[in-house]
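Supplementary Note 3. Input sequence used for the single-chain structure prediction.
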Amino acid sequence: MTVCPTFCELTEDAVVSKTKYVEYAGCGFWTYDVGLGVFLKHLIDAAEASDEAGTAWLSTAMSSWREAACIPDIGLTLDAGLSAEQRQTFVALAEDACARLANRASILAEEIVAWPMLDDLRIFPRGAPEVDTAPVVELGRAFIALVSGELPEAPDGKIWIYGTETGRQTYPCAPLDEEFEDVPDQGSRF
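The predicted structure, written as discrete structure tokens, is reproduced below.
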């Protein structure tokens, strides 16, 4: 089933400075930026090792994944124009990234900050000494569900945030006013 989020305003108790929006074909979810960076690093590794590493679509995708992994305040929009074969490849790469991550219980911050992502930019682990991989694997599975049109709908009045230190969470949100007509890009809204 394809479920798309309702545009909403987060309530004042929601902390969004550490989150990014991931979107595909008008649907998406919020994610903790550290978890996103760790997942995208492993997705890039899987893509670079694949037979399709040199294709134009995957090279373009890897560039956007690198940016989203280490540049604050930008979200990630996955290309909605992918062919069915490209979507299958993306899912296979995401499954590979999840499998690699699942082989480890956690990743030390020292390792994370050493990963070359984009020029001199690195993933910022926000003071965490390590990142548990189980919530990152759950985030990877959310990517697969999103691209496959199977992302579960968040409970009424809530949004999903994946990849947090403790796994998927919900945060309250309030519907936007009916008068709101100009919907901004969700990747950079908050």
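Residues 19-175 form one domain. Residues 92 and 144 are 9 Å apart (CA to CA).
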